Amino acid sequence: MIKEQKLTASCYIISSDKASVMFGCPSDIIKVLNAKHIKCPENIILPDSFFQYGLNIAATEFPVANFLYGQSASKTKMNIIGGKDAIERQKIILGETFPFLRHVKRPLWTKDARTYKYLTYEKFIRSKKPIKSDINFIAVSEGENFFIGDICVQKTGKNKFKAISLNQEINIDLTLDCPPIPYFQIPTLKPLPHMKTGIVVIGVGNGFSPYEENSSLIVFSDYIPIAIDGSANQRNCLEALGISAQSIPIFVLTHNHDDHSCILDLIFSGKSIHLLTTRQIYESFIRKSAAILNVKPSVCKKSVKFTELIPDKTVKLYNTTFKAHETIHSIPCIGIRIGEKILISGDTVWGTTLLEMRRQGIISESEYRRINAIPKDSKAQFIFMDAGGAPVHPQIEELSGLSAQYKAKLILNHISLNKIPKDENFIPGLLGQTLVIESGYKPISIENASDIFSNFLFDKLGKTWEKICLAESVLRKYSRLQRIDLSSKIGIIANGTIEDKHGRTLGIGDIAGLLGSEAYRAISETSLLLINRRLILECLRHEHLLETFEHAAKAERAISEMPILRRLTQTQIFKNRKAIKFLTAAKGEVVPFQNQIIKSTSLCKSDRGQTILPNSVIYIKNAKLTFENEAKIVSINFDGFKKTIPSVLTKKILEGEIL
Q: Which residue, among 309, 235, 257, 253, has the nearest Cα to 414 in the 3D structure?
């Protein structure tokens, strides 16, 4: 007798009296299992497509860590099972974080004299919790049966499996058909105040602790939002806070553990990301990302603008200084000072454990003093301080021994909030908690509105909209999930995030309802600048731009109905509007297409024998299509988009992947 238990949209456990198998492995699955008090199975089945709808559903890093450090007393082997390609990619991913495991692909950073020392640190940490267990990789072919106890598992197709026991059969399909809903509900949060300098806490948890988001911050410096690390639900958290991922120009990566480096979903925010980290961490991130995405590392590099941080040297970007320092961790890791007032400790050994490393000669006296001095830094006003517990992290009991003036600076991360002493001065990092160092609120006026709403419409209209449109505009606030009526107005998003009926999100500076009423709702507390649509249309006519914007609006509506293209932003669609065409075809007409993504209202057949169903989205490299009925066609030449969207996204769209 076998039982099926669905944990999330991309994860199932099939169990019997003798065996337990987990199908799919999303990034936060250990947090889900811990919340449900379920022991992680020793057998994990991988899908063929790891990355779907912004989520890695083959994220075995924390199940492996949980097995090695948490379950090794009773178990000796964990099996990771999947197709041959999936297994080879998984060996690369796990090699970057567990280079000591047998059979993994040894990371390049272990061959670098500057970072080889991290293997010494890792060996010391591992000696504190002796590991008896091992990871076994099993590659299976389609149609092949393999047995796990009394459960027979068969790979039946791409992302598809069948579990069989006696007369029972359970089919498992690990292909997501829509964006997954986060297991841990994102709370209702207020939009952020305008800040010149400050911190917004996204999460202080780790890959094990239930209920808390992973360790992440948004740091504001001279009004610029800077993302520090990222978690599996980062996009959802940002939207709840009214922050559009497109508005973040800089991402700092402290290290490559999954509870800090889940930023792939943000890479697909509509533009290439600007990544600040060390060369070794960057290269490791690229290799790991390429394996998750199933692309060449060179493709990932084209989607990331990289600025190298050299420890103890200052880099200046956007009028802000960044200075990294190396930490003592199991893989290459940095902390970082942003400006003078904000310090990120980075995951690090600290306190008595660090002293033991000094006594054994693993680290130098200067390294010991430098790391141990972090919470006593005199320049920083706030310190995001690692506090997860020995041997890898500082113990809360030791941090409690600091004086009150030091503790009042510390935002504790990597620790369950209920373990932070309530009668001490520590700052618990609640999701959405905002610490303003220097406020910078500017009310909307004709003088500053152009700076606030920098977008394609106002770039085209110039000063006209300031003089005419703003004079009759009104700023209105909407609560979370409230319906937004734009029957006679357009709405320019001043703060927050909204979505249309297709689930497409619009963020700060985007325009809703430009050429017609659409169904929108606020997905966070939101402020919209409402302007009479008639005035905007008159301005467009006066500037001979109406036809241009009508075409762009039509293109945006068409793309919102194509799942694989919904991540394209308003600005991208507008800039590439000439690549989007609307065609008609008569019944029986033959139309050639080359390097096009198309969607048609009619069934059609290609000269290569392929049948294309109505309203399906497909990439045509070079073919002639015969339409069985009169058809309306959306045709997109993708060459135009390559210049403005990440190359990873371009490649996946052309391959027909669902992102």
A: 257
Alpha carbon of 422 to those of 410, 418, 426, 608: distances in Å?
Answer: 14, 9, 8, 69
Among 645, 652, 657, 654, smallest CA distance to 303 is for 645
**For 248-305, how does the pLDDT look when each residue is reduced to its tens digit (9 = 90+)?**
889 999 999 999 998 888 876 656 678 999 999 999 999 999 999 999 999 889 888 9
Instruction: Extract the tokens encoding 38.
Output: 């379920």
Residues 6+ apart with CB under 8 A from 391: 124, 125, 128, 129, 349, 353
Encode burial over 405-427: b for 16+ CB neighbours within 10 A, e otherwise. ebbebbbbbbbbbeebeeeeebb
Amino acid letter at 122?
E
Closest CA to 376 of 350, 427, 410, 425: 410
Render pLDDT for 108-162 as a digit per residue (tens, 0 to 9).
999 998 899 999 999 998 888 777 778 999 999 999 999 999 999 999 999 999 9
Tokens of 456: 């394609």
Token pair, residue 497, equals 């995030």
Tokens of 333: 């890791």
Q: In this structure, which amino acid lies at residue 633?
A: I
CB atoms within 10 A of CB 141: 9
Tokens of 36: 């449900």
| Sheet strand arrangement including 216-221 | 304-308, 273-277, 250-252, 224-228, 216-221, 195-203, 434-439
Residue type, 131: I
Separation CA 590–CA 606 (nearest Å): 9
Q: Tokens 């709840």 belong to which residue? A: 240
Cα separation, 25 vs 485, whole angstroms = 40
Rounded distance, CA 201 to CA 458, Å? 33
Give me the sheet containing 145-148, strands edge to edge. 145-148, 151-157, 160-165, 168-173
Sign of the C-alpha dihedral, residues 324, 329, 333, 336? negative
Task: Scan for tokens 């004079």, then name that residue.
Answer: 471
Q: What is the DSSP string of 411-429?
A: EEESS-GGGS-TTS--EE-
Long-range residue pairs from 626-629, CB within 8 A, at least 24 positions apart, any chain: 626/588, 626/589, 626/590, 627/585, 627/586, 627/587, 627/588, 627/589, 627/591, 627/600, 627/602, 627/603, 628/587, 628/588, 628/602, 628/603, 628/604, 629/587, 629/601, 629/602, 629/603
Task: Give the H or E element holding residue 527.
Answer: strand 526-532
With beta carbons less than 8 A apart as the criterion, state whether 565 and 653 touch.
yes
- Sheet holding 526-532: strands in order across? 474-478, 526-532, 489-495, 511-512
pLDDT digits (tens, 9 = 90+) for 576-603: 888 899 999 999 999 999 988 899 999 9
CA distances from 504 to 60, 168, 230, 269 (A): 30, 40, 22, 12
| Residue 413 phi, psi (nearest 5) | -125, 170
Nearest to 275 by CA among 235, 299, 303: 303
Length of the chain as a residue count: 659
